[in-house]
Specification:
The chain has one domain: 10k-s Protein, Hypothetical Protein A, Chain A (Orthogonal Bundle). Helices cover 62% and strands 0% of the residues. The protein has 5 helices and no strands. Helix 1 packs antiparallel against helix 3 and helix 4 packs across helix 5. The longest helix is centred in the C-terminal third of the chain and has 17 residues. The two termini are 16 Å apart.
Length: 96
């Protein structure tokens, strides 16, 4: 499962045109920074978090309805708590 998640993230990076090749260190990102990021970065981060918070034995399935619902939850949690880290928000929403 982790291998699949890594392949998904690599695929997203390959198909997205980021302004510069950079590393995204989520441990330093606040909700405010996340919300002000561009659409491509937000998509990459949400996809990575979705895969990271899955159990290793989960089937390699992306539940798009759940993914969209989680993305909306990120919007709500981050709007209400702009100074918390995106990792803290992910822990609350995705439950690890």
């Amino acid at each position: 499962m982790k291998l699949f998640a890594a392949a998904l993230v690599v695929g997203l990076f390959a198909c997205c045109n980021l302004a510069s090749a950079e590393q995204i260190d989520l441990s330093t990102w606040t909700c405010k920074k996340f919300q002000s990021a561009d659409k491509d970065e937000i998509g990459i981060i949400l996809a990575w978090l979705d895969a990271y918070y899955k159990d290793e034995d989960d089937p390699p399935i992306i539940d798009t309805d759940k993914f969209v619902a989680n993305a909306k939850q990120f919007g709500g949690v981050c709007a209400a708590n702009p100074t918390i880290s995106i990792v803290t928000a992910a822990d609350r929403i995705l439950g690890k």
